[in-house]
Amino acid sequence: MAEVEQKSGRRTAAHGFYEGHSVHAAPGVHEYAVELVRAALPDGGRVLEVGAGCGALALRLRHAGFDIVPTDLDPPHDWIHRLDLDDPEWTDETRGPFDMVVCVETLEHVENPRQVLRSIRSLLRPGDKLLVSTPNVTHPHSRLKMFLRGAPFIFGPRHYHEPGHITILPDWMLTEHVRLAGFDRIEVTRGGDTFYTGATRLAYRVEMALLGLIGLRKRAQHGEGICTFVTAVAV
């Protein structure tokens, strides 16, 4: 992924730590990702993580019993493998096959997400699994931001260069990219929370209550549903 400044070159803001490693994702995103991987691979398996960043999610998955191979375009640790899916240099660890590929909060940093998904598909056998996630631009808070300022939540001029959110993927587009890359049995769920605190958090809760009253708030599978998760099976 030549265009992916994968959470290590251009990092999203850290929202907590796991085993001393910064979590560069919205609160609750990594926890929900582990739940989805467990559901997809109840007996465990070999998992490639694309866009591992500082390795917080990889450690969660390892502690959950998975044989995890973390990769990143610019690895910050020697136990994270370098992988550029636009010009891959395969090693024994990264060439696959894998039982599942996980790509969490990375596609919004990518110029060509369809190409990335096709490269991911090449690492999987028929029946193997995929998990991807990206900011949920259909969330009512994100829709309100779009209405008021012309850009969804965590997109726009302030987020274009840092953390490098350059690709907006609504649900319909993400699922179509996944389907055309060679996957079916596509399921969409939502999880993760906003990182607001203090008075901003209070204002957000009031906003959500008002949006709920007019029927714009939808229940998420995990947390507030600030991110969209897609699971699929390779064909």
Provide key terms for this protein.
seven-stranded mixed beta sheet; two-stranded antiparallel sheet; alpha/beta; 235 residues; globular; disordered N terminus; 23% strand
Secondary-structure map:
Blueprint: E1 17-18, E2 21-22, H1 29-40, E3 46-50, H2 56-63, E4 67-72, E5 81-82, E6 98-104, H3 113-121, E7 124-135, H4 140-149, H5 157-160, H6 171-180, E8 183-191, H7 198-213, E9 227-234
Parallel strand pairs: 3-4, 3-6, 4-5, 6-7
Antiparallel strand pairs: 1-2, 7-9, 8-9
Helix pairs in contact: 1-2
Q: State the total count of DSSP E strands.
A: 9
Strand order of the largest sheet: 5-4-3-6-7-9-8
Shape: globular
Q: List SSEs in N-to-C order.
A: EEHEHEEEHEHHHEHE
Helix content: 25-40%
- Euclidean distance between termini CA atoms: 23 Å
Structural category is: alpha/beta
Sheet bearing the most strands, described?
A: 7 strands, mixed
Mean pLDDT: 89
* Beta fraction: 15-25%
The radius of gyration is: 17 Å
Low-confidence stretches: 1-12
Question: How many DSSP H or I helices?
Answer: 7
